[in-house]
């Protein structure tokens, strides 16, 4: 059976693979890197922010792990159903909004 993380990654991976989403992420990453390189003060602020986000993310995962472990056996089928519904909704969106299949600049 599919675990909670695998189910979430499934729909998330599909969204991230949409050209409009992936090209937006790439553009933002380039702008962020460029800003860090050209402004030393911004670089130090960005590094502090990045460390804070990593720390908060690790703390959140550590705190959620026991809860997920307890809920996983009961929720696996519900999560699989939700993932399936999300994927079908995404299919519908991709069909109705062709622009999702193009990079942002197009």
Automatic annotation (TrEMBL):
Species this protein is from = Chloropsis hardwickii
The record ties this protein, via Pfam families, to: Perilipin
**Subcellular location(s) per record:** Lipid droplet
InterPro entries given in the database record: Perilipin (IPR004279), PLIN1 (IPR042998)
- Keyword Lyase in record: no
Tell me, what is an example of a GO biological process annotation in this record? lipid metabolic process
Kindly state which keywords UniProt assigns to this record, in alphabetical order. Lipid droplet
Gene label: Plin1
* Name of the protein in its database record: PLIN1 protein
Any GO CC annotation of this UniProt entry: lipid droplet
Family to which this protein belongs = Belongs to the perilipin family.
Q: What is its main location?
A: other
Q: Which PANTHER family match?
A: PERILIPIN-1 (PTHR47138:SF1)
